[in-house]
Design a protein that fits this description.
The structure is a homodimer.
Chain A (H helix, E strand, L loop, with lengths): L3 H13 L2 H8 L3 H15 L4 E2 L8 E2 L1 H28 L4 E6 L7 H12 L4 E6 L12 E4 L7 E9 L1 E5 L9 E2 L7 E4 L4 H12 L5 E5 L3 H9 L4 E5 L10 E6 L5 E8 L6 H15 L6
Parallel strand pairs in A: 3-4, 3-5, 8-12, 9-10, 9-11
Antiparallel strand pairs in A: 1-2, 5-13, 6-13, 7-11, 7-12
Helix pairs in contact in A: 1-2, 1-3, 1-4, 2-3, 5-8
Chain B binds a DNA duplex through helix 3.
Chain lengths: 291, 291
DNA sequence: CCGCATCATCGTGAAAAGCGATTGTTTACG
DNA sequence: CGTAAACAATCGCTTTTCACGATGATGCGG
């Protein structure tokens, strides 16, 4: 089998026209170059250079030219492979991140921006699926608001408290008592993932809000609140806060929505993924609480 | 430096999902595969596979995927290189042959046909230059009608006798005496190469033909003979013999045109070139004499 | 005919590749 | 819960390869 080292020697000899000069260029001795060429010639089945003898430069044979042409190509590609590895280790490369529309309206953009700033050459791909059973096999990382079975490792990023969102005049300022939700007209997310858990808890407490509208879109929910259709119980991070809306903590507090970062157990992270995890953790820790 | 052997192992492990099965496939032992991957991992600077332990298959890491992708490409190209070498040794490849219009009207087509039949995949390139100083540096072989200085090896293919060509009625059948050429209207090649030597000899003997037309084209010369412009003294091989022309040997014979096959001294021939030399020699030996 | 430049070859020591056996770990199955 | 099976890592060892320095062979130029 041909080896790259031998081909590098072949190229050096062809370039220099001399075994000795090729040896100098490569940091070998002349005899070593002779042997390497001999190995190649045995593998190729014929002489690769004509040795005129004396001070005349050696000349490639037709057979040698065949090997030389392919050899140069191979070496160039081996170099580009080494480059690709170096770039990857430096943080370049691709990362596939899974997310959910209902999550990370606040978190993800910040993480992505920091990641891009740190690794300008990287290729970040986002995959958004609304499902209870995420498929991590094709992803490096995934944001998710709950636990997941299987061979998954998870890192808890933050607790996102549920709040009541109303029009400023429709509800007395300050915290809201949970039982005040009973029979209240509410808009909310569809009853999947985290929302399902919230409604289960309310039901267990005998609290029956009146769900008048459901949508997956956070902005649509808030628009409905502004339009007076009803109030909203939703995770704080899903609320784009401004003066047209009033935020009320709940008492007693509902269990917060827990936001996790997931990845397949036992998997070695790319530098990019490792950095993304670190950034996500830091950004999550620095998020403002209820304002 | 990465070596092809290591990359082949990497690919086998990735394909098989197991160090042991990769070893079986490659004819190694499992421990050897472990070591090869370890070498690669040291070169790449990180793990290339996640080893879950137990019967679970090993899985490529992102870093490993980078190496794997390039490695497959490199190995495929190394294979194609080995193929190219094999094909070359079997007689495929390219051959560059130099020729002259005034030579090889008979010889070259036969040689080319035999060569193509024996090596259907080969690439034969012909270079025709009318010059007294042929340049062999870019050619594998060259047909030529004379000696050449420099580092040239030569193989004499055949003696091509000079003959007198006339219209059947214009000259008594049978051999012609050389002195009969004196003052005879002749058509001939331009006075270069072989033709120059012929005219030198005639002049030394005091024989002064009357050259009424010169052209490089053999067919044009013969057409002029048919048209009655004059007779022609030319090498036999240049004559397309038919009943419209009469061929006369010369007495005493002029030194024949010698046709050589030339190549640069000390150069290793490709199988194709070696075969071409052998064919040319055989075809030349089998050529018909004066008919 | 003798230096000069060059490549081939040989002997030696070092590095590596490969192997077999063993150990440790994880999974699957009773 | 314990055991067997599958698997990779590791260790000691042998064989092969690699690289070197020295020496010999060859063709060229004065």
């Amino acid at each position: 089998m041909y080896e790259l080292r031998h081909l590098a020697t072949l190229v050096a000899v062809a370039d220099e026209g001399s075994f000795g000069r090729a040896a100098t260029r490569l940091g070998y001795t002349q005899s070593s170059v002779s042997q390497q060429i001999a190995v190649l010639e045995k593998a190729a089945g014929g002489p690769l250079f004509d040795r005129p003898g004396g001070p005349k430069p050696v000349r490639i044979t037709p057979l040698g030219a065949v090997l030389l042409e392919h050899g140069r190509d191979l070496l160039a590609r081996a170099d580009s492979m080494a480059d690709a590895v170096d770039r990857f280790r430096a943080g370049d490369g691709r990362i596939d991140i899974g997310t959910f529309q209902s999550v990370s309206n606040v978190l993800l953009p910040t993480v992505i921006r920091e990641l891009r700033d740190a690794h300008p050459g990287c290729d970040i791909r986002l995959f958004e699926e609304e499902t209870d059973e995420p498929d991590l096999t094709e992803l490096d990382l995934m944001f998710f608001d709950g636990h997941v079975g299987g061979d998954i490792e998870h890192l808890k990023l933050l607790d996102d408290p549920h709040v009541l969102v109303t029009r400023p005049g429709d509800f007395p300022p300050g915290p809201a008592r949970l039982d005040q939700l009973d029979r209240l007209p509410l808009v909310a997310h569809p009853a999947i993932c985290d929302q399902a858990k919230v409604e289960q808890i309310l039901q267990n407490k005998g609290i029956r809000p009146h769900f008048v509208f459901r949508t997956i879109g956070n902005e649509a929910l808030l628009a409905m609140v502004r339009a007076g259709l009803g109030a909203a119980v939703m995770p704080l991070l899903a609320v784009h806060q401004d003066e047209t809306l009033a935020i009320h903590e709940l008492e007693p507090a509902l269990p917060p929505r827990e936001i996790f970062l997931l990845w397949q157990a036992g998997r070695t992270h790319s530098p990019l993924a490792a950095h993304a995890i670190e950034i996500a953790q830091r950004v999550a820790a620095g998020l403002p609480k209820i304002s």
